[in-house]
Design goal:
2 domains; Rossmann fold; about 35% helix; 7-stranded mixed sheet; alpha/beta; Nitrilase/N-carbamoyl-D-aminoacid amidohydrolase; 20 strands; about 550 residues
């Protein structure tokens, strides 16, 4: 049997567009004499649909689109993910399903059994789990059809399993000799290798080939890398689709040969590709073409602008420099040089005069009080207002430029530098910002060396540096990894890292007290195991603090 994997980039809720893409891939697969083509989890409606599944018309749209696709699948079978209504009087009203269609009819329907409810996943809120699954036959193969999480519970791979049942094991015991898995597995740094090892473990455990078809593209905060693959019973990668791009690959079950397409390699390369893809899809799937970035002359805005250009093209990106009373000449020069290197439209909107007028207007209210962070934040908010005005006038989206380290400790201004539609690098720690900037410059030198080498500063008061009020970023980033991602205590971090307990406690206190800011932030492109945003849900009004 010749199997095709249709690694597509669906748009959530775009039944017409998604169907056209699926039908096109079916036709291309048939031209290559494929017997079967797989599409990702919920490919018909896009993943994750969230509360859209609660709309009856949305559920109906899934079924109607499936019938349209079935009519076009002539002489070839297609596996499509979709939302289907349950047939039970109790429980959730819909299921996450996979349909096998051919020659105008649905040949087989399988629903997802394991519904993840952790990190960014909330499927138990929406779907009813399958109570049983069955093997189906196709061209001499007994096929175990599974959906994403159904394959993530191998007792030989995971030290602690989340579920009592293993759908793959049950289907293989029922006679399955070929495992198919359609997925919408989001990207994280290092996850591609983990995913491959897990699939290899399944193939080795059950001595069967594993065919994995994954979604690609960005949907809100989530980026899906694709990286679809076929693993042989001996653990070898027999076919591999591109990462971060749509692709169509083939695998022959008899000769055990398949397409092997080039991958994006390395942590920096994959992270950068994910940010570019996530930015491109967010802007375009929201109905926009253009973006605007505030250029401070610092490394964060430089990296954000480079990502924006690689995502949208230089003609669709505008950089705006907004020098204030404390902006250095070096920063202004760096912003201009960056814009020239990227070839983008560059504008200068000084804020000093407006800042002085605001300060004068507020003098009666602040009489007798010294200047403090209030005046610093006012400068940031004036810049936010300028960026939003430009975005409104020219139908663009503002891309915020704050990194994860700043977001963690609250070194950002609500309604100021946090203003915008998408937080491009807010899941990128400051130390990784430097690594990604160096990576981008190896592709072509666009970020000025002076930007990379200068001491970080918000330039909101004379001779200011970030480390006036913050520990070094390499220290913050290590504490951030331990506390936010690994949930270690302050005592454990101080002991294991050999950090001053007071420094650790101070950083953790800043993290906890900045929750109210993060919950008002723009959507964040997730590339780490634990990002701020939908996958990290903590109360704002709380007293809990971990003390050393």
């Amino acid at each position: 049997m010749k199997i095709a994997l249709g690694q597509i980039n669906p748009t959530i809720g775009d039944f017409c567009g998604n169907a056209e893409k699926i039908i096109d891939y079916i036709a291309r697969a048939k031209q290559q004499n494929a017997d079967l083509i797989l599409f990702p989890e919920l490919a018909i409606c896009g993943y994750p649909p969230r509360d859209l599944v609660e709309k009856p018309s949305f559920v109906t749209g899934n079924g109607e689109t499936l019938q349209r696709i079935a009519k076009e699948a002539r002489g070839i079978s297609a596996v499509c993910g979709l939302v289907t209504p349950t047939q039970s009087e109790t429980g959730k009203s819909v299921m996450n399903s996979a349909a096998v269609v051919r020659d105008g009819r649905v040949q087989f329907l399988q629903s997802k059994m394991l519904l993840p409810t952790y990190d960014v996943f909330d499927e138990d809120r929406y779907f009813s789990p399958a109570r049983k699954q069955e093997v189906f036959s196709l061209d001499g193969s007994r096929i175990a059809l599974t959906i994403c999480e159904d394959a993530w519970n191998d007792k030989h791979f995971w030290h602690k399993r989340l579920y009592n049942v293993d759908p793959v094991e049950e289907l293989v015991r029922a006679g399955g000799n070929l495992v198919l898995n359609i997925s919408a597995s989001p990207f994280e740094v290092h996850k591609r290798e983990l995913r491959k090892k897990m699939l290899q473990a399944i193939a080795a455990d059950f001595k069967v080939p594993v065919v994995f078809c994954n979604q690609v593209g960005g949907n809100d905060s989530l980026v899906f890398d694709g990286s679809s693959m076929v693993i042989g019973a001996d653990g070898r990668v027999l076919a591999q689709a591109k990462s971060f791009d749509e692709d169509l690959i083939f695998f022959d079950t008899e000769s055990l040969t398949g397409s092997l397409h080039e991958q994006v390699e390395g942590v920096e390369g994959s992270a950068y590709a994910a940010l570019v893809l996530g930015t491109r899809d967010y802007v375009r799937k929201c109905g926009f073409q253009k973006a605007v970035v505030g250029l401070s002359g610092g490394i964060d805005s430089a990296l954000t602008a480079a990502i924006a250009v690689d995502a949208l093209g230089k003609d669709n990106v505008t950089g705006i420099s907004m020098p204030g009373p404390y902006s250095s000449q070096g920063s202004k020069d760096d912003a201009r040089e960056l814009a020239g290197n990227l070839g983008i439209r560059y504008e200068v909107v000084p804020i000093t005069e407006t800042f002085e007028k605001f300060r004068k207007a507020l003098d009666p209210l602040f009489a007798g009080r010294p200047e403090d962070f209030t005046e610093e934040n006012l400068q940031s908010r004036l810049r936010g207002a300028a960026l939003m005005a430009f975005a409104n006038k020219f139908s663009a989206l503002v891309l915020t430029t704050g990194n994860k380290s700043e977001m963690a400790v609250g070194y950002c201004t609500l309604y100021g530098d946090m203003c915008g539609a998408l937080a491009v690098i807010a899941d990128v720690p400051k130390t990784m910002v430097y690594r990604l900037s160096e990576y981008r410059n190896r592709l072509s030198a666009v970020i000025p060396r002076t930007t990379i080498e200068k001491v970080p500063s918000a330039e909101l008061r004379p001779n200011q540096t970030d480390q006036d009020t913050l520990p070094p970023y390499d220290v913050i980033d290590c504490i951030l990894e331990d506390y936010v991602q690994k949930y270690k205590t302050a005592e454990e971090i101080a002991h294991e890292r050999r950090y001053d307990p007071k420094v650790v406690a101070s950083v953790i206190r800043m993290i906890e007290r900045s929750e109210y800011k993060r919950q008002q932030a723009a959507p964040i492109l997730k590339i780490s195991q634990k990002a701020f945003g939908i996958g990290r849900r903590f109360p704002i009004a709380a007293e809990y603090e971990a003390e050393c």
